Amino acid sequence: MEEIKTPDKREYILDVAERLFAEHGFEGVSIREISKAAAINIAMVSYYFGSKEKLYEEVVERKLIISNLLLSEIDKHEKYADKLFATVDVFINRLFENRQFQNIIFRELTIQHRSGMTDTILAQLHKNFSLLIEIIQKGVKNKEFKKVDIELTAMTVIAVIKTYTTSERMAYRILHLENAHSAFDVKYKNRLRKHLREILSNHLGIEEK
Amino acid sequence: MEEIKTPDKREYILDVAERLFAEHGFEGVSIREISKAAAINIAMVSYYFGSKEKLYEEVVERKLIISNLLLSEIDKHEKYADKLFATVDVFINRLFENRQFQNIIFRELTIQHRSGMTDTILAQLHKNFSLLIEIIQKGVKNKEFKKVDIELTAMTVIAVIKTYTTSERMAYRILHLENAHSAFDVKYKNRLRKHLREILSNHLGIEEK
DNA sequence: GTCTATATATGGATAGAC
DNA sequence: GTCTATCCATATATAGAC
After folding, report:
1. How far is the CA of A11 from the C1' of D18 (A)?
2. Per-residue pLDDT tens digits for B90-135
3. A113 is in which domain, residue-wise?
4. Residues B16, B115: one domain?
5. Which of A7, A172, B117, B156 is least enclosed, having the fewest CB within 10 Å?
6. B113 vs B42, higher pLDDT
């Protein structure tokens, strides 16, 4: 009963491709390498996806969805400070989990248009930023927060998490971590979480409980 | 008297190569494209630099020097708050000026070792971070600053500037700029500068003058 | 669906004339 | 120093057998 589950195989190829694209960039990997790593025949890439370009696009688009699911988690809080902290936690978790994917996204932003995909990516980033911006905006209007540069405050949150997750080796060196691979341990995730809460509390004038 | 100034030509090729590598990544440009853009013969790349790899390394290494020159500017301040702000200004200016180069550096960090260059880059980044870390450290010890997570505070500064300069189009969308190319105008540079000063003042407990 | 074989293009590098 | 011509490796993509 050795049935081949085609959708699983597709997903698996996409997983492998995502990792390799993240590690070496689009031009840095060949479909030969991808097929070898995914243990399939080279011709299968064309068969499943049409071309290397299409495969790449599918890798990006498949994960470029906002997890609206978690928004209910945020909405249940009453104070904007708590909504904000909950949102920050969502971002930390998401960026920690998808850091290899995020490297693809980020690289796509710095590389001169490979395709019209950049617009889709920018639209998605805009949505993510908007989550933070709206909360801060309302908190300020509500006098719960001090007046600040709202957009740059939102950018600060994303920037710190993104920079932290970008390079394990950089984090290791700069932050004097225990070992080269501990940057994404719970311990250091909490350190980052605590830092961001403090930065935001101080900046927005949120009182500690 | 049409004398060809060789060192200038070398520099010119490096300039062109830097721009193209920044725009498309190492594998994303061919030496054919570089030579065409620099109006030289393809064979000249090998002649001047030995190989594409060597050219790339030279592009990186030529700018990977700390500008110690500016440190005297920082040292002349008495208060650590002023030293810190002066340092932030140095970083803003440097990252604004070298943003295409910074994209190369950043990409190099996220890409799995093309060469041993990553170590050199990490060492340089470490030095840059240390500039900030030392000032914050001394300020805290001196009770001029509140106690904070020093390394992550330094990372926050670099992260915000880096993220801002990474994508003109992102900045344009998120920050609602006047036009697509104004992100690096003095006006917005000052907006970023002001934001960072406020973030740091609030976080470190620096009193406004 | 899966594979081999192949068409075709493009890449980096260099030999050798000038 | 500069250029043409060319070698050779590697890339994507696909035709066609199974």
Report:
1. 26
2. 999 999 999 999 999 999 999 987 778 999 999 999 999 999 999 9
3. 65-204
4. no
5. A7
6. B42
pTM of the model: 0.95
* B149 occurs within a structural domain: yes
Query: Which chain A residues in 102-121 lie under 8 Å from chain B, judged by CB atoms?
Result: 103, 106-107, 109-112, 118
* Nearest DNA or RNA nucleotide to A7 (CA to C1'): C1
Residues B42 and B83 in one domain: no
pLDDT reading at B2 higher than 60? no
The pLDDT of residue B209 is 65
- Residue B1 domain-assigned? no
| Residues B38 and B106 grouped into a single domain | no
SS3 assignment for chain B = CCCCCHHHHHHHHHHHHHHHHHHHCCCCCCHHHHHHHCCCCHHHHHHHHCCHHHHHHHHHHHHCCCCHHHHHHHHCCCCHHHHHHHHHHHHHHHHHHCHHHHHHHHHHHHCCCCCCHHHHHHHHHHHHHHHHHHHHHHHHHCCCCCCCCHHHHHHHHHHHHHHHHHCHHHHHHHCCCCCCCCCCCHHHHHHHHHHHHHHHHHHHCCCCC
Of all nucleotides, the one whose C1′ comes closest to residue B7's CA is: D1
Domain tally, chain A: 2
Tell me which chain B residues have a C-beta less than 8 angstroms from the C-beta of A203: 198-199, 202-203
